[in-house]
């Protein structure tokens, strides 16, 4: 057995040296991109393993859709900035100051400062629900949670916002004519005043994929994939757009300006492209997903800005880290991931991270492989976190 362990260890060590000095399996991303960490699946790796994956990619900004205790504990002392979420179903309770304070004391405060929670999103795409009671609860919930943060002395560390779909726009082109839907005016006016007051960003979930899927014969694929194309020109400003995402962002800026605000930053809380879809979901392929996200990452690396906001680099959270096998809806919904749950990239965008493996052994080899696995894990962890 001792000889078997020694041989296995030597083989593993050689493999480890090959992995780290060949320069191919682990490439550091380091582009300042954020990632959405969705968990509507039953086959995802543990949060502690995900922490190693994101560290190997040098991703330090993560957006959750809840305040998952296991995730926040696993990322303790990792210097990752977290956006955490309160689902739409929580909004009515969060209008109650006592319930809002209790939630913060139970789900947020215990994790600070070892886990860096920087933002709370109140609901997600609330105006897509057409639930008018929910619409009415959104702003009071945002205000109540923010006031509770102030009472707890956390408002300088944690901000409050909400994420919206582009359905809130009635006009999105040309970008300079962007405007919000009239039926949302009374709600968005108060929300924008709140953002201006507390200096929090306005978040949008922007998906050029949807525009292409709905009109594949009219929307140029190169335009939505950041490929070389003739672009479009805003006839009012004469600004040229070579991709749809930036046009969408500037349309939101215009809509906000039309409501009297020029001091609110727009950030992209979700964008991505599915690698697989149903037969009626045009463009949902690994090739297109790779082009969209690969080209997007290059632009983030270059700190690009939109034509209408040349001094404000676009702030983006890509959707999503993993494919999620339990997401309802069309096939595309569960196939936005950059990675399969086993840590294999869904497509090649020029970056690759390391997801620590799980070892399953028979009793006869359990001791040897356990030693090898532990040594590999510790050495890799040291090299990644050193």
TrEMBL record:
It is an enzyme of class 3 (hydrolase). It comes from the Eukaryota. Keywords: Glycosidase, Hydrolase, Membrane, Signal, Transmembrane, Transmembrane helix. GO terms for molecular function: glucan endo-1,3-beta-D-glucosidase activity. The chain crosses the membrane at residues 367-385. GO terms for biological process: carbohydrate metabolic process. Its EC number is 3.2.1.39. It catalyses: Hydrolysis of (1->3)-beta-D-glucosidic linkages in (1->3)-beta-D-glucans. PANTHER family: GLUCAN ENDO-1,3-BETA-GLUCOSIDASE BG1-RELATED-RELATED (PTHR32227). Belongs to the glycosyl hydrolase 17 family. This is glucan endo-1,3-beta-D-glucosidase. It comes from Gossypium hirsutum (Upland cotton). The lineage of its organism: Eukaryota, Viridiplantae, Streptophyta, Embryophyta, Tracheophyta.
């Amino acid at each position: 057995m001792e000889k078997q362990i020694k041989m296995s260890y030597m083989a593993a060590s050689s493999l480890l040296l090959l992995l780290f000095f060949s320069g191919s399996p682990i490439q550091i991303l380091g582009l300042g991109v954020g990632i959405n960490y969705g968990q509507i699946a039953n086959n995802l790796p543990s949060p502690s393993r995900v922490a190693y994956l994101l560290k190997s990619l040098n991703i330090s900004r993560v957006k959750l859709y809840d305040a998952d205790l296991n995730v926040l504990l696993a990322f303790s002392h990792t210097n990752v900035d977290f956006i955490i979420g309160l689902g739409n179903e929580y909004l009515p309770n969060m209008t109650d100051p006592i319930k809002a304070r209790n939630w913060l004391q139970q789900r947020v405060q215990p994790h600070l400062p070892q886990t860096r929670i920087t933002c709370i999103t109140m609901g997600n795409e609330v105006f897509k629900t057409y639930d008018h009671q929910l619409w009415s609860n959104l702003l009071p919930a945002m205000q109540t949670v923010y006031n509770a943060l102030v009472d707890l002395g956390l408002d300088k560390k944690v901000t409050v916002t909400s994420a919206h779909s582009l359905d809130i726009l009635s006009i999105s082109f040309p970008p300079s004519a962007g405007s919000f839907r009239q039926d949302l005016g009374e709600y968005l006016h108060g929300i924008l005043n709140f953002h201006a007051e507390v200096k929090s960003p306005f978040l949008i979930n922007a998906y050029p994929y949807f525009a292409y899927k709905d009109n594949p014969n009219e929307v140029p694929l190169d335009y939505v994939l950041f490929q070389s194309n003739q672009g479009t020109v805003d006839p009012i400003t004469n600004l040229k757009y070579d991709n749809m995402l930036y046009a969408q962002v500037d349309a939101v800026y215009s809509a906000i300006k039309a409501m009297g605000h020029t001091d609110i930053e727009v950030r992209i809380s979700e964008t991505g492209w599915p690698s697989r879809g149903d037969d009626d979901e045009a463009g949902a392929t690994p090739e297109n997903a790779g082009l969209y996200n690969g080209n997007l990452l290059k632009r983030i690396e270059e700190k690009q800005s939109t034509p209408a906001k040349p001094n404000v680099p676009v702030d983006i959270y890509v959707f999503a880290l993993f494919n999620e096998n339990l997401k309802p809806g069309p096939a595309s919904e569960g196939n936005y991931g950059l990675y399969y749950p086993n840590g294999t990239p869904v497509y090649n965008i020029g970056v690759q991270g390391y997801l620590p493996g799980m070892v399953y052994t028979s009793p006869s080899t359990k001791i040897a492989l356990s030693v090898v696995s532990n040594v590999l894990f510790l050495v890799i962890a040291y090299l990644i976190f050193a």
